[in-house]
Amino acid sequence: MADTKVYRASTTAPVNIAVVKYWGKRDTKLNLPTNSSLSVTLSQSDLRTLTTASCSALFPASEGDSLLLNGAPSDVSGARTQACFRELRARRASLEAADPSLPKLSTLPLRLVSENNFPTAAGLASSAAGFAAFVRAIADLYELPASPSELSLIARQGSGSACRSLFGGYVAWRMGAQENGGDSTADQVAEASHWPEMRALILVASAAKKGVSSTSGMQQTVATSGLFKERIATVVPANMAAMEKAIAERDFEVFGEVTMRDSNSFHATCADTYPPIFYMNDVSRAAIRAVEAINAAAGRTVAAYTFDAGPNAVVYYLEKDTEAVVGSFYHVLGGVDGWKTAAIGGLKPLLALDEGVAGLLQAGVSRVIMTGVGEGPIKTDEYLVAEDGSPAKR
Amino acid sequence: MADTKVYRASTTAPVNIAVVKYWGKRDTKLNLPTNSSLSVTLSQSDLRTLTTASCSALFPASEGDSLLLNGAPSDVSGARTQACFRELRARRASLEAADPSLPKLSTLPLRLVSENNFPTAAGLASSAAGFAAFVRAIADLYELPASPSELSLIARQGSGSACRSLFGGYVAWRMGAQENGGDSTADQVAEASHWPEMRALILVASAAKKGVSSTSGMQQTVATSGLFKERIATVVPANMAAMEKAIAERDFEVFGEVTMRDSNSFHATCADTYPPIFYMNDVSRAAIRAVEAINAAAGRTVAAYTFDAGPNAVVYYLEKDTEAVVGSFYHVLGGVDGWKTAAIGGLKPLLALDEGVAGLLQAGVSRVIMTGVGEGPIKTDEYLVAEDGSPAKR
Q1: ipTM, 2 decimals?
Q2: For A178, A366, B129, B327, which has the most beta carbons within 10 A of its beta carbon?
Q3: How far apart are CA B378 and CA B166, in angstroms?
Q4: What span, in angstroms and rounded, lies between the C-alpha atoms of A325 and A334?
């Protein structure tokens, strides 16, 4: 009798926000970067993707592999998604070849269902968490013995920065040197528990649609920026070394300065692209001025801004400096959604922000997200595919 | 009997807007730059400083040298102004030593009166025109046989970019190699008449006060930007060579592209400064998008933006493309001051600018200035100091 079981595995995966940025590919097909990068994995209590991977002989082969993302069918025919399917199936097929008693899952259509716990409108890049959950869930479904680093190599082919979301804590993506990308993988620089006091306040700037996707933007930078090669050759290697040391020593002053300098350097190469790419706007710049004012008032670096390929500010700080950092932003942005009022009740601002800065933030920040460093992907028994193979009712 | 004559000389001097930017000093005392630069001298019909230099034994020595700038006393005790006085007096003293029949003007107090024909509120850097007129007027008063290049060496010590305002047309400031700055002078790459069709449309962005002065800003960049040295070593030398060739060949496509790329590169190094320096704002970026849209609609580079240390856009174009360039901006900005309506009557826009871009421009551009390439300093018999030595009534 045919195997009519619906095989399922579910995992959650985190968002990560780089403090040394990935920008530029040396191989666009394999998603091999021009430089190493380093990120902090954010807590899944606040930001995570939940993905269930399932396969079954009941699923019509004619439908092929499918992905339901936040309730809507999502195209899986893209080269990057296909690369992930192919890599994972090949590994499963090897296991099956070595042990004929294993069910032939590699031959079955995959049905994936995925949901984020944060609004898409937040303008947060969800592709890292998405591809990490995608790869981790299928690897669990296939019971692959692969390490997170090995899986990072697969996730990288889906979305570069996804490889860093396979680990919790502080994560480096080593650019590697091999032509086939075999050594372009992520590893954990430090566990979340090594420096658990790291917090992040995300200021979501009213999200107009991104002008230039990161995928095309970074290659325009590689092709046209006269300053980019200096970033790759000198700036990033120095920042990587300084950042790893700062994390090892839990030195926030250095962590913060390198984070801000690297964000500046990345956006400088965007501005030097021809035609220039601008991800930051006047609201983003106001957030920078606010962080500078908070640090000046504190007399040390208590807050560090960083910006990805969009106007949202991510402000890193340590728990002990919550009042100085969060209090100052709450004072002007108390009216928007997202504050964890229990954590910030009664906080006094360290300073009153400049009126111009406050006005720009009030006009442009639509919500905040309060989070902190967190763990890597977590296996869960919460399924988005029911036992009969249909998308679970929620 | 004592000489009670009031000696006077008057000159006008132009504004120049660089297409390869000066940003960074290798010697702050002598104003020696880290790189060569190149500018277009703008017509004095639209933008000029008029300066009268006078000296007389009637002027009380106790008052020393003085400068009345736009009707208000201006401090002349700064090291840069003093350097200009000193250099000019030394040259006059040499003449007097060689020819004892000459009046001893070098020993008399200088009284300077200076006026701009454009509103200070326009936010245009007037120091280049100001120091060029200052040096040229005193040199004329002293009847110095110095060439414009020799005077450029003096004006450079007052304000770096002032050295380029001693020439009309297309002007290079060669960074030089000598420690004493003896070879860091300006020269004329081409006369205005070589390529007289060059026009400039200046979009004056409602001028909030500059956050960071260029003098301190550029040295922060030199000290902290990891990308800056690449600009100096590679980007600018290539841009200088390409720009000189483009001017020689009257090739606006190349002139425009290099102008835009060099402006981008300069502002990228500002953004890479720590803390970052932002001169451009969302209005500036809208002007860039407008230029890109105009060029895309024209199917070639008909307009080129450049930004100095502030949010104002300067858009270079050729007279034959007035309709395409000016017409498109006039269509959305017709309500602000500064249009030469005779020149633009009946102009049809090449395209309707994107609503977001148009809205930002309408909200942020307070006036426009229409001008073009022009001549260097011009001696005039319009005096701002009367024959009796008092500031002239006007």
Answers
A1: 0.92
A2: B129
A3: 10
A4: 13
* B378, part of any domain: no
Residue B218 confidence (pLDDT) above 70? yes
- Within 8 A of A269 by CB-CB distance, chain B residues are 227, 268
Mean of the per-residue pLDDT values of chain B: 94
Whether residue B268 and residue A227 make contact (CB cut-off 8 A), yes or no, is: yes
Contact predicate A269/A85, CB 8 Å: no
Domain count, chain A: 2
Nearest CA in chain B to A274: B261
Taking CB atoms and an 8 Å limit, are B269 and A227 in contact across chains? yes
Is the C-alpha dihedral spanning B79, B80, B85, B88 positive or negative?
A: positive
Chain B nearest CA to A275, separation (Å): 8
Render pLDDT for A49-96 as a digit per residue (tens, 0 to 9): 999 999 999 999 999 999 999 999 999 999 999 999 999 999 999 999
Domain end (from B149, B171, B193): B193
- 3-class DSSP state for residue A299? coil
Separation of alpha carbons B306 and B266, rounded Å = 10
The answer to whether A356 and A364 are in contact (CB under 8 A) is no
Q: Residue B286: which of B210, B348, B365, B369 has the closest Cα?
A: B365
Same domain, B211 and B183: no
For residue range B38-76, what is the model confidence (pLDDT) as tens digits? 999 999 999 999 999 999 999 999 999 999 999 999 999
Chain B contact present for A226, CB below 8 A: yes
Q: Are residues A160 and A219 in the same domain?
A: no
Side chain identity at residue B90, one-letter code: A
Residue range B230-242: mean pLDDT, rounded: 98
Parent domain of A25: 6-193
Q: Are residues B294 and B159 in the same domain?
A: no
Please give, rounded to a whole number of angstroms, the shortest distance from the CA of A30 to a CA of chain B: 28
- Closest partner residue to B230 among A230, A264, A288, by Cβ? A230
Q: Which of A231, A260, A282 sits opposite B227 (nearest CB)?
A: A231
- The beta-carbon neighbor of B276 closest among A238, A288, A356 is A288
The answer to whether the beta carbons of residues A73 and A208 sit under 8 Å apart is: no
Within this chain, do residues A64 and A82 fall inside the same structural domain, yes or no? Answer: yes
> How many alpha carbons lie under 13 Å from residue A170 in its C-beta half-sphere?
22
B393 is a domain residue: no
Put simply, whether B210 touches A (Cβ < 8 Å) is: no
Angle at B367 between CA B361 and CA B372, to 5 degrees: 105
Q: Note whether residue A394 is domain-resident.
A: no
Residues A123 and A212 reside in one and the same domain: no
Min distance B84 CA to chain A CA atoms (Å) = 36
Q: Does the beta-carbon distance from B274 to A292 stay under 8 Å?
A: no
B9 touches chain A (CB under 8 A): no
Task: Judge: B274–A282 Cβ closer than 8 Å, yes or no.
Answer: no
